[in-house]
Amino acid sequence: MAENRYFYAVGRRKTASAQVRLYPEGTGQITVNGKPVNEYFTREQDLVEIYAPLRATGHEGTFDITVVVRGGGVTGQAGAVKHGIARALLKYDENLRPVLRRGGFLTRDPRMKERKKPGLKRARKAPTYTKR
């Protein structure tokens, strides 16, 4: 196996997009935008979400992972990283598909912020109705 061989995938959620590289035979180190994962994502909930596909497949601590994530907010970026890791794991081993599918890691979360409509205050909030 080549020294710098990796498995690449893109994960997305809302407006966030994460480019993930999985390096096999690593130490379990995850780097996000040049920082350690627990420095970039400080909320415990986001860290649990990122590690979820690795835990589900039993590959926690087997890969070195580098991530470049852009767009969106903190939680959207964490979701994008999770999606990207799951897709990269699938490229690493196709036999992991049932486990990843069961955990819901391969499904892209389609929920987006709805656009504001004319005549309304926000996407759905209408101005207060007054009879007179």
TrEMBL record:
<dbReference type="InterPro" id="IPR000754">
    <property type="entry name" value="Ribosomal_uS9"/>
</dbReference>
<dbReference type="InterPro" id="IPR023035">
    <property type="entry name" value="Ribosomal_uS9_bac/plastid"/>
</dbReference>
<dbReference type="GO" id="GO:0003723">
    <property type="term" value="F:RNA binding"/>
</dbReference>
<keyword id="KW-0689">Ribosomal protein</keyword>
<comment type="similarity">
    <text>Belongs to the universal ribosomal protein uS9 family.</text>
</comment>
<keyword id="KW-0687">Ribonucleoprotein</keyword>
<dbReference type="InterPro" id="IPR014721">
    <property type="entry name" value="Ribsml_uS5_D2-typ_fold_subgr"/>
</dbReference>
<dbReference type="GO" id="GO:0022627">
    <property type="term" value="C:cytosolic small ribosomal subunit"/>
</dbReference>
<dbReference type="GO" id="GO:0006412">
    <property type="term" value="P:translation"/>
</dbReference>
<dbReference type="InterPro" id="IPR020568">
    <property type="entry name" value="Ribosomal_Su5_D2-typ_SF"/>
</dbReference>
<dbReference type="InterPro" id="IPR020574">
    <property type="entry name" value="Ribosomal_uS9_CS"/>
</dbReference>
<dbReference type="GO" id="GO:0003735">
    <property type="term" value="F:structural constituent of ribosome"/>
</dbReference>
<feature type="compositionally biased region" description="Basic residues">
    <location>
        <begin position="113"/>
        <end position="132"/>
    </location>
</feature>
<feature type="region of interest" description="Disordered">
    <location>
        <begin position="105"/>
        <end position="132"/>
    </location>
</feature>
<dbReference type="Pfam" id="PF00380">
    <property type="entry name" value="Ribosomal_S9"/>
</dbReference>
<protein>
    <recommendedName>
        <fullName>Small ribosomal subunit protein uS9</fullName>
    </recommendedName>
</protein>
